[in-house]
Amino acid sequence: MKRAGQLIGAIANPDNLRLAFWKAAKGKRGKTDCRTFQENLEGELEGMRAELLRGAVRVGDYHYFTIHDPKERIICAASFRERVLHHAVMNVCKPVLEKAAIFDSYACRKGKGRLAAVERAQRFARQHGWFLKMDVRKYFDSIDHAILSRLLRRRFKDQAVLALFDQILASYETAPGRGVPIGNLTSQHFANYYLAPLDRFIKECLFRPAYVRYMDDFVVWGESGWELREVCEQVRAFLASELKLDLKGTVAINRTVFGMDFLGYRIFPRIVRLARRSKQRFARKFRRYEQALLRGSWTELQLQQRMQALLAFVLPVESRAFRLHVFDRFGVAANGLEPRDPRRQLEQQREELPVSEPQQQHAGQQEQQFGVPSGPGPSSTGALDSAAADPAAIQSRGEVESAGKEQVSAVRC
Q1: Could you tell me which residues come within 8 angstroms of residue 72 by beta carbon, excluding any fewer than 6 positions away?
Q2: Model confidence over 172-200: pLDDT tens digits?
Q3: Buried (b) or exposed (e) across 359-391, using 16+ Cβ within 10 A?
Q4: Which residues contact 218 (CB under 8 A, 6 or more apart)?
Q5: Which residues pair with 68 in a beta bridge?
Q6: 156: which strand partners?
Q7: What are phi and psi of 313, to 5 degrees?
Q8: In a designed cystine with 272, which of 78, 243, 317, 332 is the match (CB 3.0 to 4.6 A)?
Q9: CA–CA distance from 40 to each of 30, 46, 52, 81, 295 (Å)?
Q10: pTM, whole model, 2 decimals?
């Protein structure tokens, strides 16, 4: 296996450092530390370049805070200057780490991602009758620095780059010689690469072709429960002996037809839904966002920006009925954040017109047809969901159905 060398010059290249700044500043232009760095951009980049070539880069300037979504985690956010450094390093070193990845590893890789992993998992669920789902206990906090350093030396031979890696690893510990900070770009790539030996072990030693991993969540498929129990014990032993990691006690072995929770979704062979915890988190955030708007803490634009990110998680899967239920309960649908049924909009327009005034067409306005559209319309399920969300639409549709029945009776007579 050929190792990569002479990379520190490419990392310290001015063009690479400018690209790193552009990546680190994306979405951060309004932050004070980003503006301060940009005001003296050339000087900051020149100073970073000199530190890289000299082998004396400043690291470890972290800001800590706690999140509780979906569980309590301590996030370690590097300073803006250090984030620029991380991007500069990964711009050059990421392709080297990519060569160690198998096809079915989906985290921190271009062209992969969460939805690609879910799609692949559903494909395996259609092909096999049983699944084994595992994840690692306190993964980021349990990564061993010595083992990771040894794995990195299998891919890199540039001593300056390896010394920089060791310096980044030594800047954070949860226990002596253990742990990488959650929130850093380098940590994501290091953590994904740390389990590359596990991927090879499952694929090449256990001969399990139906396998998907997203960071420390991984699934193996098979044809019976007993064979997957053997796989679980072999994986547990490999992690303990080779990587000093432990599996969580919540190992799941079950039939694929019963569904599997993976990356926030419930995956069945023919359909993908939201997992129960994802539904709870979605409804809780929607309610909090609505309250922020009512209190005046957010503008409607800020609300829509956050709703857009929240909806991006639930829209790719079967979740329409659940979304409509949440919208109706918390009043979000009234703000125009969810695409509506065109027939429902027409019914609302009819209700808004005064009864005494004829529905005349204004100049320059196309003629509106309130009948059933000739092309394919929304599904019956969508119509029922829309009707349940709008009592006025139910009443109007009932009147239309009554008129249709009277016409049919007249024809029969």
Answers
A1: 66
A2: 999 999 999 988 999 999 999 999 999 99
A3: eeeeeeeeeeeeeeeeeeeeeeebbebbbebbe
A4: 133, 134, 135, 195, 198, 202, 211, 212
A5: 72
A6: 4
A7: -80, -35
A8: 317
A9: 16, 10, 18, 12, 39
A10: 0.77
